[in-house]
Amino acid sequence: MTAKKKPEQDYTGHEVVITREFDAPRELVFQAWTDSQQLAQWWGPRGFTNPVCDWHPLPGRAIYVVMRAPNGTEYPMAGEFREVVAPERLVFTSGALDETKQLLFEQLQTVTFAERDGKTLVKIHMRVLRTTAEGNKYLGGYEAGMGQSLERLAELMAECENPPPDTSDREIVITRVFNAPRELVWEAMTNPEHVVNWWGPRGFTTTIETMDVRPGGIWKHVMHGPDGTDYPNKSIFDEVVKPERIVYTHGGRKAGGPAAQFQAFWIFDDLGNQTRLTLRMVFPSAEARDTVVKVYGAIEGANQTFERLGEFLAGQAKT
Q1: Phi-psi region of 297 (alpha: psi -120 to 50; beta: other; left: phi over 0)
Q2: What are the φ/ψ torsions at residue 183 (nearest 5 degrees)?
């Protein structure tokens, strides 16, 4: 006897109410919901980004957001604003789109903002207006996904109330535009078979022991200088958002030399057929930065490394 497949739950008419209190003024929280640049920083589960965020709260205005998962998969969403009462209330429809740009489901979301002694109580009431068999698969994870979004919003509010300290006196920043698409530049940075071809100043070679490009992954490599000096390095990846951003904590030194410890931020900006790559290294102190610049020639070394990367990418484009 063949067991019948259990049908997917039909979420039509399903309702969810989520309430969260934020330690921030109502105007600030409302702005985070209505400013597209701010919303793009927290909308979606952890690890997700929003490369497209057409979100301008006006009654009748269409919504279009593209959420990108950590593995690069994109999830487009569309909807429409129905009511906007600043700073008290937002009402809008939203739903995921399939490959033909048709809605997999449509939900009505009402978000209210109540002020309480300098804090803000946000209440989200979601009701499913209509759905499809494929759409039901997404709706089952609504509460968990929105919960993570609101956690990210709380973190953003905390940053607004307590901006990070100025680190400009202990940074090195290098920026270069490469004549290659972002995906190709990302691959050059994350594939160890490519990295060994360009990593380090001119005259250096690199041996990679391990390179696990994921949050918590380890990157161990040894740079070999033209004079035979070896420079062992070990980094731990803190954040990897393909193909936009890589953050890792680095530690390295040569025998008998001072430590070179910093946090590196690699930002990949898509310029069409070009990519703007920015490397930002933040050191524990200005003295630590100055020592690495003096002893290891960090600034010139980084510039030469970027030059070698450009040459490597040009060669890849010809193959």
Answers
A1: left
A2: -60, -35
Q: Is 3 among the domain residues?
A: no
The CATH number for 148's domain is 3.30.530.20
Residue 296: name the closest of 249, 222, 231 by CA.
Answer: 231
pTM value is 0.56
- 79 in Cβ contact with 65 (< 8 Å): no
Beta bridge partners of 113: 122
Judged by DSSP in three states, 193 sits in: helix
- Among left, alpha and beta (phi > 0; psi -120 to 50; other), residue 117 is left
pLDDT exceeds 50 at position 192: yes
Which of 145, 161, 177 is the last residue in one of the domains? 161
Mean pLDDT of 19-41: 94
Closest CA to 158 of 13, 29, 20, 4: 29
Could you tell me if residue 6 is inside a domain? no
Q: Give CA–CA dist 178/126, Å, rounded.
A: 45
Evaluate whether residue 150 is within a structural domain. yes
> Helix H segments across the chain?
26-34, 36-42, 133-139, 142-161, 182-190, 192-195, 286-296, 298-318
Distances (CA, A) of 27 to 2, 59, 158, 161, 287: 58, 19, 14, 13, 41
